[in-house]
Specification:
Elements: H1 13-29, H2 35-41, H3 43-46, H4 50-65, H5 67-77, H6 87-102, H7 107-120, H8 127-146, H9 150-153, H10 157-167, H11 169-178, E1 185-189, H12 193-200, E2 203-205, E3 209-212, E4 229-231, H13 234-241, E5 250-254, H14 260-267, E6 271-276, H15 279-292, E7 297-300, E8 312-318, H16 333-336, H17 339-358, E9 360-370, H18 379-388, E10 392-394, E11 415-416, E12 432-438
Parallel strand pairs: 5-6, 5-8, 6-7, 8-9
Antiparallel strand pairs: 1-3, 1-4, 2-3, 9-12, 10-12, 11-12
Helix pairs in contact: 1-4, 1-6, 1-7, 4-6, 5-6, 5-8, 6-7, 6-8, 7-8, 10-11, 13-14
Length: 441
Amino acid sequence: MSQNRKSKNVDASMIVARRAAFEVLRNVIFKKRALDDAFGFIPQYTALTGADRGFASYIVRTALRRLGQIDALIDHCVPDSLPRKARPVRDVLRIGITQLLFSATAPHAAVSTTVDLCRDIEQVSFAKLVNAVMRRIQREGAQLLEAQDPARLNTSDWLWESWVKAYGEEAARAIAAVHLETPPLDLTPKSDPEMWAEQLGGTVILDGTVRLSEAPDVTMLDGFEDGHWWVQDAAARLAVTLLGDLQDKHVIDLCAAPGGKTIELLSLGASVTAIDISERRMGRVRENLQRTGYPATLVTEDARTWEPNTLADIVLLDAPCSSTGTLRRHPDIAYLKSMDDVTKLSGIQDQLLDRAAVYIKPGGMLMFVTCSLQPQEGLERVTAFLNRHTDFARAGIQKAELPGLEDAITSDGDLRTLPHLLGDQGGMDGFFVARLVKNNA
């Protein structure tokens, strides 16, 4: 960037993190690249270190969480649509407004860097417009935010309608509110969660999860390199805890990556065959097993066609889904997935369930899990499966099995966690879990 194009009161180094955030945001929204993939792909971001990388990550994630509100403010200040060639200007304003209203950036720095970013991306002719919009938001932003409905504005129509129908408007609003917050970091230790909570400055929740209010670089935390714990949302642990005594049980873990459930199964005494279709994702499982020191049989194949050598006592199917239950951790999902994806993935879930049924010994158990809030990827799949497989029946989850989460057990005996559960402790991901048993015949 040439010196004569910089804002006089902005150091060039201040633009680097903003430009990285801009490039990542555009890749997610316009190129439909998953956020984690974009972070690893965009050279402007991968070149960042330390505070600059943390700042860029925060700005992108916050912009995605608040995109509905931010776009409403842009439309209020720019009633005439920007020309097609100026589409990047909207992303510049998204980055700027996020700094101005939802970060600790000084207002003058937020305005100046946003104008400078506009110039940096070769949109010099719109610099005056960007400056005017940013200064107006600086003056009126707090009042305009007060008049908004954040829950509704930041939730896609298809998600909102689905959640209101499934859970009611009050719960839909509570879910949407949690999605606006940066989630805590949950760890599952091999042993002694109280000790690790004290050492890492966290708290113990749900009888074994260590929760840290901040989400630092996990590789820098005590115990990471030695494999004393692994990252796993509190809700994700519940499926394994509901399997009962796992000592010497043979478990097939379908769609196993990144391996949190595999490790927990092993830690509880099971022998595990972990299957995933993706070699890249299976690499994550392999890394996590090496770090934690647990052995497992790893198979990189499509579970819909794989043939096991022996039948399993238990099959844990954490099926591919829309992942809408993890929006608080992955805000890009709202812009990458649609109802068409739910329909497509539901068909894959049916295929995997049918195949999983073949892998189980008589009297064995099938645990079906999805990290989706959509009923089509939960209750509806189990209902359809039981209609097709009369040799299976529910083994309903009892309230005594989940102290503190009794309200998450449905009338059918399934588990349905919602993001606002444990809201006073930081919430949790949205999961559906159904426990099914194969008869002995």
